[in-house]
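So, is this right?
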Amino acid sequence: MLVHRVYLCYNEAMFDLPLAVQCFIAVVFGCCMGSFLCVCVERLPQGLSVISPGSRCLHCGKAIPWYLNIPIISWLFLRGKSWCCKKSIPITYFLSELIVGLMAGLLYMHSPKLFIPYFMLFCLLWVAFFIDLKIMIIPDEISLLGIVFGVLLSCFFPELQGKREPFYGLIRSVEVACLSMGGLFLFISIVEFFLKKEAMGLGDVKLLGCIGAFLGGEACLFSLFFGAILGTVCVLFGYVFQKFCLKRRVKLRNKRIPFGPFLALSTLLYLFFPQLMLKL
């Protein structure tokens, strides 16, 4: 297969380089992806294409030339202001490029052989995290496409699913994605039947399927249960903070809390510490 040959060529070219150079390439690639992920977080909630048109000024809409669209460097060079109308560019763009770049380097050092699927999953979770916080919706472009990518990558990296043969990795990925979504949907349906109100959005169900398609059943179970623990701790902390630290109280009881960010955080913990996390 052509794709498999390209992957073998990538391995030969990449792993012949010194480790420091490999990590540097991963960081640079991550910074570029961080810039693209900013566009995804900005445009997907509005139903806009993330490809066309190209990067434009947030304030006046003027196209940004490529030489002023270099991750991290351009923001520092322009001192956080747009080149055309001199208005402020949110520091979140700079931080996104920096953090995603550093995470790419960490993921590469942690698992160089599985860097491609791990980093792709991280990018999907990054976008889902911020969009769910922003509008409490996880777009299908993230979760459903993530399932497709997870299944395909499990064919090239069957060890993601604990298999050795590409075909069995693909089949296992499909099984885990379907079982995790089906099981969670059934559980939610039962809970909602008794509570008579929405317990969890379908976006969370599909995001769990995406996680399972990439990482397998153990990761699904850990992300679901540890994510629930993280969510509970954050809610309790919110109540305590409101009661003792805020002069003006905000009603939290009837407020919806997005679960996607907690799924994303728990999955990230599993990526770096799979054996340690499973012992908890």
Observations:
- Residues 17-110 form one domain.
- The chain has a mean pLDDT of 86.
- The two ends are 41 Å apart (CA to CA).
